[in-house]
Predict the structure.
Amino acid sequence: MPYHRRMSSFPHDSVRAIHWIGDGLRLLDQRRLPDETRFLSATSVDDVTGAIRDMTVRGAPAIGIAAAYGVVLAARARIAADERTWKQAIEEDLRGLEGARPTAINLRWAIGRMRGAIGRAEGIDAWRDLLAEARAIHEEDIAANRRMGELGAALLATPSNVLTHCNAGSLATGGYGTALGVIRCGYGRGAVRQVYADETRPWLQGSRLTAWELLQDRIPVRLIADGAASYAMQQGKVDWVIVGADRVAANGDVANKIGTYSLALSARHHGVGFMVVAPTSTIDLATARGDQIPIESRAPDEILALCSRRIAAGGADAWNPVFDVTPADLIDVLVTERGVARRPTPADVAALAAP
Amino acid sequence: MPYHRRMSSFPHDSVRAIHWIGDGLRLLDQRRLPDETRFLSATSVDDVTGAIRDMTVRGAPAIGIAAAYGVVLAARARIAADERTWKQAIEEDLRGLEGARPTAINLRWAIGRMRGAIGRAEGIDAWRDLLAEARAIHEEDIAANRRMGELGAALLATPSNVLTHCNAGSLATGGYGTALGVIRCGYGRGAVRQVYADETRPWLQGSRLTAWELLQDRIPVRLIADGAASYAMQQGKVDWVIVGADRVAANGDVANKIGTYSLALSARHHGVGFMVVAPTSTIDLATARGDQIPIESRAPDEILALCSRRIAAGGADAWNPVFDVTPADLIDVLVTERGVARRPTPADVAALAAP
């Protein structure tokens, strides 16, 4: 299967990382990009849980979508095993999926929505109803991204130089992307002149994923070390910092890839706009403030080793939190598919999240 | 030769990267640490110029010291070639050394001091007088570092958690270090509880050099991604950020490794102390403001490739400035061997630099 297919008439939009094909899920293995564009087949819910945990699939909306398809795989197997008890039995699978990664709320959001579909599903082919729901989640995410692309790009003066962090693109979503959706739309309109991308240590999502994805779509990109972002702002090279989110708390605080908070501080200091682009599935009204969001720490080896080779002296330790929290008051604009909030307040967040 | 020798009775101080042995210079190859502790022999001024350019030796004071020894090698060769004209002929060598790297002012400072010694030197053994001057520069640097260690450590409450960036240690100086000198002294006194070190992309001086150097001296160190520094401060894990400098302008602005400026912004935002530790040889009164300091950019491949393997998608570009400038008003304390200035003013800098 070719790894990029023109999924739409939108320009600069050729990458899709999640496909339901025939009766199974195929996931672009993001650990291997850009060296290899290899798809892995996930034929069981355990495959999907493992793929989320090991970052074969990553990015908050993409994790939610993959999990929704994982519920379909779980239901098919549980129904085949025992048609009468599957709705109880599947709970174990859902808890496994929910525990795969802690920070992105889209995971729990998608599973919650699939639980609703499970409640309504009937008969031996109930999993097909769940597949329809998972497909809807997937398609709605792409539509939300396109809408956010329009809303966010409309805020950019022409020409703007933008800086993004991590990968909040097609690879991180159902397709088109959140932050990269705004950049895609802005670039297509001629509003975006130069895209800077932080390399985003330790996992190098910027170098490995964002650069690959933008170049697939012929959007030029210039990588910088994470530590160079403040200097770029000081030198007047950046008009907007545009990032995605893994969770938006009720007060507007945003959890996103480690390093985001530093960008927000620098942006405010330099009068550079700071834009968070996230679908409403990323909003978690049950979490009042950002300091209550669980922040995942991953293995120290992501810092201590490179290319499977230890780089730090033996005996050195590392602390590897992979998300941080940006306070709402540093966010100039929160863009969702339902609208835009400037300097978002709790009331703004609640209004955007209301169904 | 063993790569670490107890050079003194100071605790936690075993590493030396620059040695004049017999009649030549030996440099610890910092490109190969921590995998190999290999010394290279430099037997000509061109060897030294090359070693500075390719970062076999790096760190502002260390570059100056290596260059001073390079002048000795140049003089010996020029005197052997023509005893009458060597003082004119050596100018070409000095200009080559001066041009090896642009940002660290210690390079020009050391060559300026060696020019003075050249002016005074006489006879076929004139190079021996120059060697005495180079040795003096080297020993004075170590003494300055010890003094700065005392002065800086005296500012730390007990116990303090400190964060450093890049490598401003024994490897970056004649020995003992600037920022790491303060940490060495503070750790020896029990004032420093935890040392965090930024990994410091792209060259990974933190992971490769600072971790190695501190562990050689049994000082525990915890590495973090550069992007995690602001989060560490937000979480209350850091009391002081302690860094070195490549050049201090007359107004107190400081050029240092890329990423330093971002740390200074975050430190001020969080009420964390920001300490710059630099010998007076790093002060450049001829440069009025930081924005006049030449900032070196190095090859994009330092960002685009890792372990000699390209990591970014083909076609991606990179911008790789390797220093940035921190404005004086973000500096809480400037520590030199002649004393300490809090929130340094131009008058403070001038007073510290006065001979």
Observations:
- The longest strand of chain B covers residues 192-198.
- The CA atoms of residues 183 and 225 of chain B lie 20 Å apart.
- DSSP finds eleven helices and 17 strands in chain B.
